[in-house]
Design brief:
This protein is α/β, with parallel strands linked by helices. Helices cover 38% and strands 9% of the residues. The chain has eleven helices and five strands, in the order βαβααβαβαααβαααα. It starts with 12 loop residues before the first strand and ends in a 20-residue tail after the last helix.
Length: 281
């Protein structure tokens, strides 16, 4: 005897976290996770899995002529819903991937009314933070740099900021979403600087954007770590979140010429660029 779905229970909502590395995506997920109605985590493989299915349901597969657009939509939506079906207690699910900003049209097609939170940070400080992680491991090497042991700070920055690199792709994807046709009503930019300086104000803005009732978060007891994943990519600490949300001041370790080169890349800081009236927190 099958159990009928609970009609009194509202349908589950799916939202997405994206943006730049080292910009607060894991911190945001850790904060959101304090709300028992929410489920959020570090970068998941879902976007990559969906990409494989999109490719195999396209003309890459000789039999794709028999797959309709309606079936493609159902397949993609089903991947998201089924991926999180084991967390049945969460009414609102947040999936994290740097790919989502490059797939705004897909998300809008699958989940009309979808909300995407893109975490951003001054690009020079993103790169500085990445370099700090590298220098913590002088006797190891990272998958981020294809396990190349013959690198310098200059070649590492070039690799990171390449359009296919970890930072370069995410930066271009965020710009793509910010200037794209689906930005209005679907996208919010969350600056790392404001999140760590005034987390309560930042989170209230996010709750308004999501149209969710406010939950009182504890910003002095936020923790998250993914030690196994971080060790696997050769960057311990990549997803570690400190207990207390606060701004930590320090001097840049990047050479001055590199830091200065990326100091003015925060396109979201200029109001003239915000043609889609994207909320910036």
């Amino acid at each position: 005897m099958s159990t009928a779905p609970d009609a009194s229970k509202p349908p589950r909502k799916f939202h997405f976290i994206s943006g730049l590395p080292r910009s607060g995506t894991t911190l945001l997920a850790a904060i959101l996770n304090q709300n028992p109605r929410f489920r959020a985590g570090m970068t998941s493989p879902l976007a990559d899995i969906m990409g494989v299915v999109i490719a195999e349901a396209s003309s890459k597969n000789d039999f794709s002529f028999d797959v309709s657009d309606e079936q493609r939509v159902a397949l993609q939506r089903g991947l998201v819903e089924n991926f999180y079906s084991v967390q049945a207690d969460a009414g609102v699910v947040f999936d994290t991937s740097r790919l989502w900003c490059s797939r705004m049209q897909l998300l809008d097609t699958l989940f009309p009314g979808v909300k995407v939170i893109a975490c951003v940070r001054q690009l020079a400080w993103v790169l500085d933070s990445m370099e700090r992680l590298v220098r913590r491991q002088p006797v190891s090497v990272s998958k981020v740099f294809r396990f190349d042991t013959n690198t310098t700070v200059y070649s590492r920055i070039e690799a990171l900021t390449d359009p296919r690199g970890m930072v370069g792709f995410a930066y271009q994807a965020t710009k793509d979403a910010f200037y794209g046709q689906h930005a209005q009503d679907h996208l919010l930019l969350l600056t790392y600087e404001n999140l760590v300086r005034d987390p309560a104000t930042a989170m209230r803005a996010i709750y308004r954007f999501l149209d969710e009732p406010w939950f009182e978060h504890d910003f002095d007891n936020v923790e998250y770590h993914a030690d196994e994943f971080d060790a696997r990519v050769g960057m311990p600490g990549l997803h570690t979140v400190r207990r207390k949300v606060e701004a930590v001041e320090h001097q840049p370790i990047l050479p001055r010429e590199i830091f200065g080169r990326f100091a003015n890349e925060a396109f979201w800081m200029d109001p003239k660029n915000n043609v889609n009236q994207v909320p910036i927190v």
